[in-house]
Design goal:
Blueprint lengths: L1 E7 L5 H14 L4 E7 L10 H13 L7 E11 L2 H13 L4 E6 L7 H6 L2 E4 L7 H19 L8
Parallel strand pairs: 1-2, 1-4, 3-4, 3-5
Amino acid sequence: MQIKLIAVGKTDDSSLKELISTYSKRLSHYCNFSFEIIPDLKKTKNMDESTQKGKEGELILKQVNPSDILVLLDEKGKSFTSEEFSEEIQKKLNTGMKQLIFVIGGPYGFSPEVYQRANQKIALSKMTFSHQMVRLFFTEQLYRAFTILKNEPYHHR
């Protein structure tokens, strides 16, 4: 199964980029992982929240096929422990679907169309994190999930 992480907007911080790259490389030992960036929209100063979410939503949905499993990283989503998340990943791997897509939205979240298309919403925490930090946290948690599934010593129970 191909696992893709889509994020709206680029990461400016070089240390975050480096850490995300480190975990992305580690993930390549377990799955076919890719990290895709949807560029920031231009001229958003005169754009209302709804319009911005709509335009970002169109760009997100262009990258999703009808057969893909689409999971939104959303503060109102279901929370998991690392072990529970690894079980959730295993369930999705067992479905035989070709592509599992996780999405980190823009600053205002997702459009109604993206919510409508989503198969699931998950939350990393009840706390709010910057979208750039979420990329690192999620990539690390995905890596952790695979090490748990393989009974490797990275995660301490």
